[in-house]
Design brief:
Elements: H1 4-16, H2 20-28, H3 38-50, H4 54-67, H5 72-84, H6 88-101, H7 106-118, H8 122-135, H9 140-153, H10 156-169, H11 173-181, H12 190-208, H13 218-221, H14 237-250, E1 274-279, H15 286-297, E2 304-309, H16 316-322, E3 327-330, H17 335-343, E4 349-352, H18 359-364, E5 372-376, E6 390-394, E7 409-413, E8 438-442, H19 453-463, E9 467-472, H20 477-490, E10 498-501, H21 506-515, E11 518-520, H22 529-536, E12 541-542, H23 553-561, H24 571-583, H25 585-597, H26 599-602, H27 607-622
Parallel strand pairs: 1-2, 1-4, 2-3, 4-5, 5-6, 6-7, 8-9, 8-11, 9-10, 11-12
Helix pairs in contact: 1-2, 1-3, 2-3, 3-4, 3-5, 4-5, 5-6, 6-7, 7-8, 7-9, 8-9, 9-10, 10-11, 12-14, 19-24
Length: 623
């Protein structure tokens, strides 16, 4: 009789030769043998993981760990399987147990860092990556992950340095591109913005001339977008197109074309246009709150809806999406498989609720998956991508000649773009009684704080001596550190009156909006859902419209309500309006009452649903 040891050796040999199927078959011959050792169990678990049998793999490795709990490798491999099964807490536990036994285990430190980063535990993530590199200086993935973390934290120079070290170890194209596209998140000055964009242009020219540069899967190899460009307050069309052109050149697989498109004839088969809505944020997120009423409200007799989601988050909002009357398709996070899933639905129209906020939908947008492809202002800037045909916006937000700023054909809806339900926590509430101290709130994400807001905050605080400006801490703790450092220089005499509040839940946020005397809109990139929530609390927002739509969304809401009292034409007027709202109780009450009376014009705007339906039908006709 051939021993279990022999089969084990054979299985391991096939595994090392990457013949996982054969290795898996061999395992089945000894699965019930009584002489299987803990090491064999662990190896069989690793082979089962490679074969995709994750539950079986976990069982084998759990048995090995139970027999030899002090083996760090067994624990590490069990953690890997738990991570594959999305059992993140279990994975974290086993990585930490492995590190108690072997504190310098680089792979465990790196993977634990990834878990910490995903949980926004940024400081611990950084420590994990740096410790992994300390124990294995040539560990490419740890250098790359540290670079990614530093970029996301706003330390662009440190990120570039880490990408450089990673590229020195392994000149991976994705890291080369990430290094080139790295930009600061929290700028110290406008000059720094100009300098960073100039560097980006130089880097793009260099990449375009690199004939050896190529990508197979940009989601895996690059794993990010040029998200932060939109926050600079400058024209982005040329850079967006350059970046798009680069990706099209170096990654031919992005030019996928769905098989049904070449034979597509609109309306030939009769029936309603088949429209797909796609996002990675169909859970509790701004994107869902802005779009759910549109998706569920489109008349079924005129529009057939299919929902495509990359999100695996389960919460009440994702359940609303999943349990709608429309077909729901959970998308594989492999770009090629996702393209095929969408293609199989043979859409007439694909509607991206956002492009540019994360890599999956950004790189998916390069392909021609539907004959007609739309995007809207989930990320309110042109994509620069040639296969996106239309950008849907609002005439209330767009400036004159706005179409010149888009690579897509701009379609501006007359009136409010979104149909948003008034949040329940703001219904039938009265404003919180004011204390002697005046509370000014700027609730925007910290990367929206362009340097141009600093003199506005400073001017207001100097004009209203008993006021404080409250801002909300970011998901990444380094953002507030960098912003406070900037404020110490730019607002030296009043910086102590800028308070950073801890992040809060929905109830805490609604209480903040109701207790605020004034809300400040950020220049160049205004509030969207945050402005709607402030208006739901009848709290005045001071806004200064920007040059581009992304800095004019609060203006659009004010226009819809017919209120222009708090729309400033320049910086001085911005400061004056904010100060008057703080000091003139009658003026404050007049504005607050106007906003309260205007609620029915900005919330539950069902007219926009019919306007979208007509746009879809017209696009079909014109095609």
């Amino acid at each position: 009789m051939i021993s279990t040891k022999y089969f084990h050796e054979q299985a391991v040999a096939f595994f090392r030769a990457k013949n996982f199927e054969k290795a898996n078959i061999i395992i089945s011959k000894v699965i019930d043998n009584s002489d299987i050792t803990p090491s064999m169990l662990a190896d069989f678990g690793v082979i089962k993981r490679a074969a995709g049998e994750l539950i079986v793999a976990r069982n084998y490795l759990s048995r090995a760990v139970k027999k030899v709990p002090e083996n760090a490798d067994f624990l590490y491999n069990l953690a890997l399987v738990c991570g594959d099964l999305n059992e993140i807490e279990e994975a974290e536990k086993y990585y930490e147990m492995a590190l108690l036994i072997n504190p310098g285990m680089p792979a465990a430190l790196n993977n634990l860092g990834n878990i910490k980063k995903a949980a926004h535990n940024i400081l611990d993530a950084r420590r994990c990556y740096e410790e992994a590199i300390k124990n294995q200086p040539e560990y490419f993935q740890a250098h790359k992950n540290l670079a990614d973390l530093m970029e996301a934290s706003g330390f662009d120079k440190m990120a570039i340095s880490s990408f450089t070290r990673a590229i020195h170890i392994k000149p991976q194209p994705g890291s080369v591109i990430r290094k080139a596209l790295t930009l600061p998140l929290i700028f110290n000055s406008k000059e720094e913005i100009f300098d960073s964009r100039e560097r980006l242009k130089i880097e793009l020219d260099r990449l375009k001339n690199d004939e050896k540069l190529s990508l197979e899967d940009p989601v895996i190899e690059v794993g990010s977008t040029n998200f932060s460009l939109a926050y600079h307050g400058l024209e982005d069309l040329s850079l967006q197109k350059e970046i798009s052109s680069l990706y099209q050149k170096i990654c031919p697989s992005l030019n996928f074309r769905a098989p049904h498109i070449d034979d597509w004839m609109p309306g030939l088969e009769g029936g309603a246009p088949r429209v797909g809505f796609i996002s990675s944020f169909f859970h509790e997120h701004t994107i869902t709150k802005l779009n759910i009423n549109l998706i569920n409200g489109l008349p079924k007799s005129r529009i057939e809806v299919v929902i495509f989601s990359f999100s695996n988050i389960k919460d009440p909002w994702s359940e609303k999406i999943r349990k709608s009357e429309h077909k729901f398709v959970p998308l594989n996070k492999n770009l090629d498989l996702a393209r095929k899933q969408i293609s199989e639905e043979m859409l007439d129209i694909l509607y991206f609720t956002d492009i540019g906020m994360e890599p999956l939908t950004y790189f998916l947008a390069f392909s021609r998956i539907a004959p007609i492809q739309f995007v809207t202002w989930g990320h309110p800037v042109t994509t620069g991508i040639s296969n996106i045909d239309y950008f849907i916006s609002s005439s209330l937000a767009e400036p004159k000649n706005a179409d010149l700023e888009y690579s897509e054909k701009l379609l501006s809806i007359d009136g409010m773009l979104n149909c948003v339900t008034k949040p329940i926590q703001y219904r039938n509430v009265s404003r919180v009684k004011k204390s002697q101290e005046i509370k000014i709130v700027c609730p925007q994400s910290l990367f929206k704080f362009h340097p141009d807001i600093d003199p506005l905050i400073g001017g207001i605080l100097r004009a209203v001596p008993n006021a404080e400006v409250h801002i909300i801490d970011g998901l990444n703790p380094y953002w507030s550190i960098l912003l406070k450092k900037r404020f110490l220089k730019s607002l030296s005499d009043v910086s102590d009156r800028v308070k950073i509040l801890p992040r809060m839940d929905n109830n805490g946020y609604s209480q903040l909006m109701q207790s605020a005397d004034v809300v400040l809109d950020t220049p160049h990139f205004s509030g969207g859902l945050t402005s709607l929530e402030a208006f739901a609390a009848s709290t005045p927002i001071v806004t200064i419209p920007g040059k581009f739509m992304r800095g004019r969304v609060t203006l659009a809401m004010y226009r819809q309500m017919g209120i222009l009292d708090c729309v400033a034409k320049d910086r001085k007027e911005y400061v004056d309006i904010a100060a008057r709202l703080c000091l003139d109780q009658n003026f404050h009450e007049v504005v607050s009452s106007k906003i309260r009376e205007g609620h029915d014009r900005i919330f539950d705007n069902r007219k926009t649903i019919g306007k979208h339906a007509r746009i879809f039908e017209k696009a079909m006709f014109e095609s």
